[in-house]
Hints:
By secondary structure, the chain is mainly beta. The chain contains one helix and twelve strands. The chain has a five-stranded antiparallel sheet with strand order 1-9-6-11-4, with no helix packed on it. Strands 8-7-10-5-12 form a five-stranded antiparallel sheet. A hairpin with a 4-residue loop joins strand 7 (73-78) and strand 8.
Amino acid sequence: MVGDFLVLDDCRLVYFPKITDFRGNLSFIEENSQIPFQIKRVYYLYDVPSGATRGGHAHKGLQQIIIALSGSFDVLLDDGVTKRSFFLNRPHYGLYVSPGVWRELENFSSNSVALSLVSAVYDESDYIRDYEVFKKGVIDYGSK
Ligand code: TYD
């Protein structure tokens, strides 16, 4: 939360065009069209063992779209005040995650692939990996 503003309100599902075809479907993502930032990096999680959890951090400035390119998983979002869970299971939509939101990815199905499109190159200093530090930041922002 920043002031009276719940950051989680910004997080939403984003749908990509889907060209259906009896030979197989096709979706696409274009800069400045389907997503609200310039893509600087793409990474993907795969071979996730059953029961594993990924994420477990927030970002100070990074914006992200998470897509279940294959299989399914849950994304739990938490802005320090409100928590919300999204089930991703199709490759023609993704979840936009704004800065300042704690995220956990869990319940991965076998052979799932979690694709992330992000707004910056990798920078460890953009991460908040300690939940207590994250919560304290939320309280500090909220009290301003
Ligand atoms: P992390 O972002 O914590 O993974 P996740 O949130 O998806 O569970 O990253 C795990 C490790 O990989 C960490 O040591 C940083 C490194 N890493 C990179 O070097 N480049 C990247 O683009 C990403 C996403 C992670």
